[in-house]
Amino acid sequence: MPAASINVDDDILLRRPSLARAEDIYALVDANRDHLCRWLAFVDAMRSLQDQRAWLKAMLEPGHERWEYPMMVLHKGVLVGMIGVQNLGSRARFCELGYWLAADAQGQGIITRSCGALLDYLFGVEGINRVQIRAAVGNARSRAIPERLGFTLEGILRQADLANGVFLDMAMYSMLKEEWEERAT
Ligand SMILES: CC(C)(COP(=O)(O)OP(=O)(O)OC[C@H]1O[C@@H](n2cnc3c(N)ncnc32)[C@H](O)[C@@H]1OP(=O)(O)O)[C@@H](O)C(=O)NCCC(=O)NCCS
Questions:
Q1: Among the four residues 60, 91, 114, 116, which has the most C-beta atoms within 10 Å?
Q2: Mean pLDDT per 10-residue run, the chain (185 residues)?
Q3: 82 C-alpha vs ligand 1 centroid, how far in Å?
Q4: Of all protein residues, whose CA lies closest to atom 44 belonging to ligand 1?
Q5: Whose CA is closest to 95, among 128, 64, 125?
Q6: Which atom from ligand 1 is nearest to the alpha carbon of 100?
Q7: What is the pLDDT of residue 115?
Q8: 164 half-sphere exposure, CB direction, 13 A CA radius
Q9: How many angstroms is it from 139 CA to the middle of ligand 1?
Q10: Would you state the pLDDT for residue 75?
Q11: What is the pLDDT of residue 184?
């Protein structure tokens, strides 16, 4: 069962959304459509508050959190983006992180710090052994996050995603539990 919230530091809190937050999340997606749609396929599918509600409702179905769950990123109490934990539930105990931030919240280390706290939680509490991050080869800001956190670049998955009508080559990064723990000592 994922934590209801994770304290990243004095400024940043990750919190599991309730269905009531669909409106806030949709407003942020809608205000950042151009910024987000180049790299994120879901943005195009999120055309109305109803779409957002349906997505969130599916995420909050009992049991769904064993496979994936979203967390809101709150900066000084304000919703500024989302982080998703995905592809959970494998026998090999790996998962993947996905994230996005409002354009005007970039450049402050919010996602790097949030991913760091999530790694502590996933390795330390959830028993995960490997965390993956996939970022489009051309998405320098996204790739900088696993690189800043010391992930290993394993290779390039050719045309492994499709966003905005373009097939994207994806850089696959990973962090192992033993590496993360070694880093912390
Ligand atoms: C990908 C995305 C979340 C990255 O946002 P970001 O603001 O660059 O990432 P962070 O929040 O970790 O901030 C890092 C920046 O803050 C700076 N920073 C300040 N304080 C920091 C701290 N304590 N720790 C780390 N970085 C810090 C870093 O130097 C970096 O600055 P730079 O932009 O000049 O290099 C954002 O660009 C985005 O949402 N893009 C569109 C959607 C997307 O591509 N999602 C990912 C799909 S794979």
A1: 114
A2: 92 98 98 95 93 97 95 98 94 97 98 98 96 98 98 98 94 98 85
A3: 13
A4: 39
A5: 128
A6: 39
A7: 98
A8: 10
A9: 11
A10: 98
A11: 74
Look at residue 131 in the predicted model and tell me its pLDDT.
Answer: 98
| 100 CA from centroid of ligand 1 (Å) | 9
Residue 86: both structure tokens together? 């995905």
pLDDT of residue 1: 74
Which tokens sit at 110? 């919010």
User: Which domains, ranges and CATH numbers included, belong to the chain?
Assistant: 5-184 (3.40.630.30)
Atom of ligand 1 at shortest range from CA of 136:
48
Which residue's alpha carbon is at the smallest distance from atom 10 of ligand 1?
Answer: 109
Helix axes 110-124, 140-148, angle to 10 degrees: 50
Q: Which of 8, 106, 132 to mutate to test the pocket of ligand 1 (most atoms within 8 A of CB)?
A: 106
* Residues 6 or more apart whose Cβ sits within 8 Å of residue 89: 66, 67
Assessment of whether the complete model's pTM goes beyond 0.90: yes
Residue nearest to atom 26 of ligand 1 (CA): 109
Cα–ligand 1 centroid distance for 61 (angstroms): 31
Q: How far apart are CA 141 and CA 171, in angstroms?
A: 13
- Can you give the C-alpha Rg of the chain in angstroms? 16
Look up residue 57 and give its two tokens: 């409702």
Question: What are the structure tokens assigned to 108, written together?
Answer: 């402050």
User: If you measure from the C-alpha of residue 1 to the centroid of ligand 1, how many angstroms do you get, rounded to a whole number?
Assistant: 28
Element (H, E) at 49: helix 49-59
